[in-house]
Amino acid sequence: MQLRRFCSGTIEVQRNPSFSEITSDDIQHFVEILGEKNVVQDEDRLLAANTDWMRKYKGSSKILLLPNTAEEVTQILQYCNRRCLAVVPQGGNTGLVGGSVPVFDEVIINLGSMNKIISFDNVSGILVCEAGCILENLDAFLANQGFMMPLDLGAKGSCHIGGNVSTNAGGLHFIRHGSLHGNILGLEVALPDGTLLDMLGSLRKDNTGYDLKHLFIGIEGSLGIVTKVSILTPSRPSSTNIALLACKDYSSCQNLLVEAKRSLGEILSAFEFLDSDAMDMALTHLEGVRNPLPPSLYNFYVLIETAGSDESYNKEKLEAFLLSSMEDGIISDGVVAQDINQANSFWRIREGITEALTKAGAVYKYDLSLPVKNIYDIVEEMRSRLGEAAKVVGYGHLGDGNLHLNVSTPVYDDAVFTKIEPFIYEWTSKHRGSISAEHGLGLMKANKIHYSKSSESVQLMASIKKLLDPNRILNPYKVLPSSMLFND
């Protein structure tokens, strides 16, 4: 059996021998379904589709399919299920855990051509669209209607809404709008056997039986392929303010969060933090980025966004909050964006840290959910463990208890890796945290799920997978341990 090794020893995977290999007859059948131009075998295009954007995971698929309709997706899946051809669904391919690229030779189904807005109700704010719509494009469409997407990500210019749903993406405005479980009203999903499951409702309230749509939010395409989405969108605020603040220590960041929730209340829409190493990464590796609070670096930075309908009221609340925080010694310095360009420059720092880390060299990325009081403890523990061998960077969505912990090294190094794992997962489990706050499990953490979920819960997940996908063709080797799915 084929064996593949990823990321400097982090993962070793064996190809499931029950899966068929693609043949010329299979390719011809896909051409009959999609037309020749939508069955891609070009080496350059396949190379891009086989590789994640961080270039940590690389498959060897020989075919990329580009369906234009949900019905074409179901025909592809029906055939692949019958032939036992493994499949990987793919959207914008912006994931960070190897969930959207093949592990071996899986058939790639990319939904980028399914990018139509089907309807928008400007009374209720309910948008219905196809899964291949790019998040930023949806937000631009809604802006003309006075609404906005309840989700904002650094990858918004590339990621697809279907992928966002499939990973239950969190993002920058989670503190205000909550998770997609609360904003998704309905889905259309193609099941592994080719059944098209119509759950594309647009009702806010519907208590008729099991709410099945939640089964397909956050499962990373392992149970079905999302083809259409119905989502509740909030009104776009007419007044937005951005402040970048400096704090002397992590305790001050926590106190600032408490005061922000108390003083800013309903207008608080984002509360992000980054440490001095994260800021240094952005300043060093991102083109055009400047220190917003010169001349030297502070220990911590907090980015606060407020959004509301009354400009003068919002400014007064923010100014009163900042003045009080400064007087109480919670913040050491700060600046409020005076125009859209300055606001964008602040967000560029926060959203560009992942890009900066990639440019700096090899990076071990961890996406943890922890009690806010414990979040920075793990950063300091990792610095103590690794010493001068690596740079440990901490940043994330402090308002949601979500830490992005990154270990940066010039090249991938097994000696560094063995000091990171399994320690980081054991530490997170000990503190009752989650090893994946918003990135998903993908290939990277499929075998680590027990650190966050009980054995009974994982077994039930495996049972659901086997029920809906008895041939295990859909995104294999991801989300759940392969030993639970293929050894029966």
TrEMBL record:
This is Probable D-2-hydroxyglutarate dehydrogenase, mitochondrial. Its cofactor is FAD. Signal peptide: none annotated. Pfam families: FAD-oxidase_C (PF02913), FAD_binding_4 (PF01565). It catalyses: (R)-2-hydroxyglutarate + A = 2-oxoglutarate + AH2. The keyword Metal-binding does not apply. Keywords: FAD, Flavoprotein, Oxidoreductase. Residues 57-236 form the FAD-binding PCMH-type domain. GO terms for cellular component: mitochondrion. One of its GO terms (molecular function) is FAD binding. InterPro entries: FAD-bd_oxidored_4_C (IPR004113), FAD-bd_PCMH (IPR016166), FAD-bd_PCMH-like_sf (IPR036318), FAD-bd_PCMH_sub1 (IPR016167), FAD-bd_PCMH_sub2 (IPR016169), FAD-linked_Oxase-like_C (IPR016164), FAD-oxidored/transferase_4 (IPR051264), Oxid_FAD_bind_N (IPR006094). Belongs to the FAD-binding oxidoreductase/transferase type 4 family. It comes from Acorus calamus. Its EC number is 1.1.99.39. Catalyzes the oxidation of D-2-hydroxyglutarate to alpha-ketoglutarate.
